[in-house]
């Protein structure tokens, strides 16, 4: 039933030791700025589009890539930080523990937002926005809440040049300020359920930080709802963890385990915390989303009451639930490999990259022309496509670069392909010749169908692979329980 | 030319005196919670759908609306605050000067975001995210920047329970931290132009606040770009103020005046500030968006340099530009009237509200059924439609309520309408009988075309009315200059 209690999760939840990472971060950061030259055992020659481009691809430029990623098996954390730096997903902010989310990383977050925003609205939630400054006294109103959050607070003590009379907390989460407002908005049962969500930044003064996984400031959505009955609140908490679960499986291709947190790990102020936990490539678990049944804890602390149908005043029953930019870290650590990032097509900012290949100048125009046509065809059918037509890099360098960025499909077009009206398509998830198919007709309806089909295949294949990996390291019994819940 | 200098703007920019507002805010806030009963000179009887519903509409419930809005002509500021409270656009946060943006107000902001986000991406900008905590020393690096912003800063001095070694500023704007990062990312001319945008919250410790117009914390987008030449930067600054201008005219139906700020009003740290200024219903101007040519000011302060094609190191040329939730205030104050909010269809969260009308219980099913069909037809054609089928309110109360919420079109369906297969449609912008058309066929293609046509008409009509109002109070010469610029 609903009181799933997967106590065996607890051991999974110890965060990966990040002390070592913190120590080596500066080095890793430097690595990016000082280009190192290390020959790469490149497999590009085997991957080039057609024989005529072999020379081009094999030339010396290719053998000296500017980027180096620590092998995943050698040092998982170093690999993780290298991928983030090289794929330009994020960078370190000037304040310790803060992170700048760069465009490519932010685009993954936008894809997450786009999907969840629709689901939240479909299930009756409205977006809104609460101020981030919370009077210090609010945090103290709910006993276990202050205990949980007070060590992690950033506090504003000066405003407009003056010492403030009451210190302000920069929101670590918004239950207190939400309840302060709910108390003013909720009068009768007719005002319930009240179901809202906000996309916002939150601040938690973490000592050990790691990009995406744990940063001083992060982005998230936080849902907050108030209901007339405990059953409704429980159903809502379950509904939202279910939406998160489906999102993880269907969009991120991450086979999370859904369950309930142990008492000690329950959210500070909640009665029950449901969680989705994902297994990373280093076999450590990552809490990837939570949904809390808050009971009447915050309602009592803030006097959030309603008049029921019989005229009796009662406290509301509440939930809150959140997914954050940490999820991007989960995607990197679930699917990435030694070549870098590997993105599930449904969340990839670029689903298909087109690399035109020419040797002689008189081939260039025809190749670029064909590449542009292919781009238009795919774009019109709603596929996120990029044409990398820069002159400054060799095709081999581009192959390497876009593989590292995790783009699911690559289309190669050379002069011979133009002549035969076909293209070469390579899958990111299957390296080398095996993932490469020659002679796919450029004919629009054929090409579109082929690409869409392959993207679906990759999406499924990533999930299957992650499930197999997970099942290899977890007792299958556990999943039977979970699967019945999901 | 580009050096447009509309010095006569300056007198427009003095903010509406908000001291008086601040004094009366608590009263206004209270007004909402203590329902006052004041008979309204209701014109509902004249507006009811068909004769058979007159009784229903005229009944006593209708004459005692729960909401009271101060007439606009009597006290513009009181009217403004009443509209915000009654239409549930926003509420006061617990910290002085902060604002909670409620779902209906936030939905207007989402419509603004949706439009601008597409335009920003079309013009080559990528979204990303910078941390909101900025080392205090950063703010001091650009001389006029610190002078402009230091009186308005919120400062974090405690983190994780400890006094911080360096105080942190909660971003009032992000030029400093952006330049800190740009300096690390930009190496050569190949890295330029660098064009990014972020949607974020910002904090400015304002003493006189007013919902949407001036709050301690607000939401905005801030664009930041770096270029190789001053011409490129100037073109970018102009391009963005042009996008804002088009947005204001075409989406918000606000005939802004585009020009350049005087020296004293130029952004702290910029060389030139372009602005769009809107005239509110009280004939006061509102700065509704700005685009700054920053020259090399921040580049010099932060050492943001690139190597040009000749191998010479040079400072980049930059711009920044922003539109904030203040724009929602501009929409309220441009179009609203004594009945409340009036929203331009293109930004309205609800474009059409359907009010079913029945007297006898045996009429209810047929009326609701027809209302649902109409809703489906409109929804499928992409129109934002709401069916208000609640039992708790009379049709007259609903007419009043949705007019106050500024919904552009109302569809009324009664039993006789069902019998004749038609509906009654009323325009928000034309009160009473004049704005009401009977006997519009329910036939899907006809209804869809009629509604879309009317929404376009209302959009144009709001703009025309606002232009006429503006031109009545401004010297026409001024606009000739502006129009040629726009």
Tell me what portion of residues of chain A adopts beta-strand conformation.
15-25%
CATH topology of the largest domain in chain A: BirA Bifunctional Protein, domain 2
Structural class assignment of chain A: alpha+beta
CATH homolog superfamily of the largest domain in chain A: Bira Bifunctional Protein, Domain 2
- N- to C-terminal distance of chain A: 11 Å
Strand order of the largest sheet of chain A: 3-7-8-14-11-10-9
Rg calculated over all Cα atoms of chain A: 25 Å
Greatest interface and its residue counts?
A: A-B, 58 and 58 residues
CATH architecture of the largest domain in chain A: 2-Layer Sandwich
| The top level CATH class name of the largest domain in chain A | Alpha Beta
Shape of chain A: elongated
- The overall pLDDT average of chain A reads 86
Secondary structure tally: strands of chain A: 19
SS summary, helix count of chain A: 16
Instruction: Tell me which oligomeric state these chains represent.
Output: homodimer
Low-confidence blocks of residues of chain A: 1-65, 476-486
Question: Biggest β-sheet of chain A: count, sense, barrel?
Answer: 7 strands, mixed
Strands, helices and their partners?
2 copies of one chain form a homodimer.
Chain A (H helix, E strand, L loop, with lengths): L18 H15 L10 H4 L6 H5 L17 H11 L3 E3 L6 E3 L1 H20 L3 E2 L5 E3 H4 L3 H7 L4 E6 L2 E9 L4 H11 L8 E10 L13 E11 L2 H22 L5 E4 L11 E8 L5 E11 L1 H6 L2 E3 L5 E3 L1 E8 L1 H10 L16 E5 L4 H20 L4 E3 L7 H10 L4 E5 L1 H6 L1 E6 L8 E6 L2 H30 L2 H10 L1
Parallel strand pairs in A: 3-7, 15-16, 15-17
Antiparallel strand pairs in A: 1-2, 4-6, 5-6, 7-8, 8-14, 9-10, 10-11, 11-14, 12-13, 17-18, 18-19
Helix pairs in contact in A: 1-4, 5-9
Keywords (chains A, B): Aminoacyl-tRNA synthetase, ATP-binding, Ligase, Nucleotide-binding
Catalytic activity (chains A, B): tRNA(Pro) + L-proline + ATP = L-prolyl-tRNA(Pro) + AMP + diphosphate
Protein name (chains A, B): proline--tRNA ligase
């Amino acid at each position: 039933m609903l009181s799933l209690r997967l106590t065996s999760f607890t051991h999974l939840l110890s965060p990966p030791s990040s002390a070592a990472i913190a120590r080596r971060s500066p080095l890793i950061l430097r690595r990016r700025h000082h280009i190192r030259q290390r020959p790469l055992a490149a497999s590009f020659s085997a991957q080039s589009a057609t024989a005529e481009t072999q020379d081009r691809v094999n030339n010396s430029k290719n053998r000296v890539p500017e980027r180096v990623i620590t092998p995943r098996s050698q040092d998982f954390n170093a690999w993780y930080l290298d991928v983030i730096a090289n794929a330009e997903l994020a960078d370190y902010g000037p304040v310790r523990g803060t992170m700048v989310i760069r465009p490519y990383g932010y685009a993954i977050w936008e894809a997450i937002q786009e999907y969840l925003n629709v689901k939240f609205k479909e299930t009756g939630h409205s977006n809104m926005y609460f101020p981030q400054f919370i009077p210090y006294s609010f945090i103290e109103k709910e006993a276990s809440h202050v205990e949980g959050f007070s060590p992690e607070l950033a506090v504003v003590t000066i405003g407009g040049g003056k010492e403030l009379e009451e210190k302000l907390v920069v929101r670590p989460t918004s239950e207190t300020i939400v309840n302060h407002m709910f108390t003013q908005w909720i009068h009768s049962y007719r005002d319930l359920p009240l179901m809202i969500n906000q996309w916002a930044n939150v601040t938690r003064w973490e000592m050990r930080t790691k990009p995406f996984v744990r940063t001083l400031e992060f982005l998230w959505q936080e849902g907050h709802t108030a209901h007339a009955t405990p059953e409704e609140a429980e159903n809502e908490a379950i509904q939202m963890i279910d939406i998160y679960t489906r999102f993880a499986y269907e969009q991120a291709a991450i086979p999370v385990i859904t369950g309930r947190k142990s008492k000690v790990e329950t959210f500070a102020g909640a009665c029950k915390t449901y969680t989705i936990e994902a297994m990373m490539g280093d076999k450590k678990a990552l809490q990837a989303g939570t949904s809390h049944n808050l009971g009447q804890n915050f309602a009592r602390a803030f006097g959030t009451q309603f008049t029921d149908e019989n005229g009796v005043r009662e406290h509301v029953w509440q939930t809150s639930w959140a997914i954050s930019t940490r999820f991007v870290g989960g995607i990197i650590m679930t699917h990435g490999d030694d070549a870098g990032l590997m993105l599930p097509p449904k969340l990839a900012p670029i689903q298909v990259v087109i690399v035109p290949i020419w040797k002689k100048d008189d081939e260039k125009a025809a190749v670029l022309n064909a590449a542009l046509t292919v781009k238009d065809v795919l774009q019109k059918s709603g596929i996120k496509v990029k044409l990398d037509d820069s002159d400054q890099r060799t095709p081999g360098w581009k192959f390497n670069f876009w593989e590292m960025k995790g783009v699911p499909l690559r289309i190669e077009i050379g002069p011979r392909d133009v002549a035969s009206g076909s293209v070469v398509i390579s899958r990111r998830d299957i390296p080398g010749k095996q993932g490469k198919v020659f002679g796919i007709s450029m004919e629009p309806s054929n090409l579109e169908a082929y690409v869409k089909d392959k993207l679906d295949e990759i999406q499924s294949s990533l999930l299957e692979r992650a499930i197999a990996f997970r099942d290899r390291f977890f007792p299958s019994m556990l999943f039977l329980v979970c699967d019945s819940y999901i």
